[in-house]
Design brief:
By secondary structure, chain A is mostly beta strands. Chain A has no helices and eleven strands. The chains are: A mainly beta, B mainly beta.
C-alpha cells in the first residue's frame, strides 16, 4: 500500500534553511507520477510550494521559487524540499503528496500526514 | 495570475441539508478545477477532479459542476462526518492555485 511520510526538524532558526524529506513506500518514485509539497500556516489555507516529475523536471510557486529546491533521491525512494532564508511566515504544516500529472501539476490524490515546522529562535 | 475566490468562507447547515460552495476564477479556466476536503487535524483529501469527476471511493452525495469561470461544489445531504474545510484548486500553466477555503459546520 502506498504511503508517504514526511520527516525533518520541527524547529528551524530564522534565516536558516528548512529541509524536509518525504519517504515513499509501496511505489518506486522513478517509475512515474509527480511528487509535490503543500504547506498550511496555522489556521490558514493551503499553499502549493512546488512539484517534481519523476524525470526530474520541477515546477514552483512563483512566490517561493527563489528560495525553494525540490529533488529526488531514487536510491532511498524519497524526495526532498529545501527552503532557504526562512522567517516566521514559513511556520506551517508541510505536506508531501503524489500527483498523477496533467501532464504538469494537476491534483494531489495521495498525501502524507504532514509535519509541523516552526520558525523561531 | 489567475485568482480563485471561494464563497462563502464559512457556513452552518443542518444534517440532511443541501450545501453548495462556489469557486470563481478571475478568468476562463475551462474545467481545470479540483475540490478537496480537509477534516480538522487531517491532510486534505481529493474529492472532485476536472470540475465534475468524482474520485474513486468518494460518497455519491458529493458532486461538482461548472466550467469557464464559475464552479460549484455540492453536498446533497450533509452528514456529521462532512464537517471540514473545503478547498477548490486550479491547475494551468504549470502552476497550482488553491482557493481560500470554506469551513462547513453543523447547525
Amino acid at each position: 500500500q502506498l504511503r508517504l511520510q514526511e520527516s525533518g526538524p520541527g524547529l528551524v532558526q530564522p534565516s536558516e534553511t528548512l529541509s524536509l524529506t518525504c519517504a515513499v513506500s509501496g511505489y518506486s518514485i522513478d517509475s512515474g507520477y509527480y511528487w509535490g509539497w503543500v504547506r498550511q500556516p496555522p489556521g490558514k489555507g493551503l499553499e502549493w510550494i512546488g512539484t517534481i516529475h519523476h524525470s526530474g523536471n520541477t515546477y514552483f510557486n512563483p512566490s517561493l521559487q527563489s528560495r525553494v529546491t525540490i529533488s529526488l533521491d531514487t536510491s532511498k525512494n524519497q524526495f526532498s524540499l529545501t527552503l532557504t532564508s526562512v522567517t516566521a511566515a514559513d511556520t506551517a504544516m508541510y505536506y508531501c503528496a503524489r500527483d498523477p500529472g496533467a501532464p504538469g501539476p494537476y491534483y494531489f490524490h495521495l498525501w502524507g500526514q504532514g509535519i509541523l515546522v516552526t520558525v523561531s529562535s | 495570475d489567475i485568482q480563485m475566490t471561494q464563497s462563502p468562507s464559512s457556513l452552518s447547515a443542518s444534517v440532511g441539508d443541501r450545501v453548495t460552495i462556489t469557486c470563481q476564477a478571475s478568468q476562463d479556466i475551462n474545467d481545470y478545477l479540483n475540490w478537496y476536503q480537509q477534516r480538522p487535524g487531517k491532510a486534505p483529501k481529493l474529492l472532485i477532479y476536472d470540475a465534475s469527476n468524482v474520485e474513486t471511493g468518494v460518497p455519491s452525495r458529493f458532486s461538482g459542476g461548472g466550467s469557464g469561470t464559475d464552479f460549484t461544489f455540492t453536498i446533497s445531504s450533509l452528514q456529521p462526518e462532512d464537517i471540514a474545510t473545503y478547498y477548490c484548486q486550479h491547475y494551468n500553466n504549470l502552476l497550482l492555485t488553491f482557493g481560500g477555503g470554506t469551513k462547513v459546520e453543523i447547525k
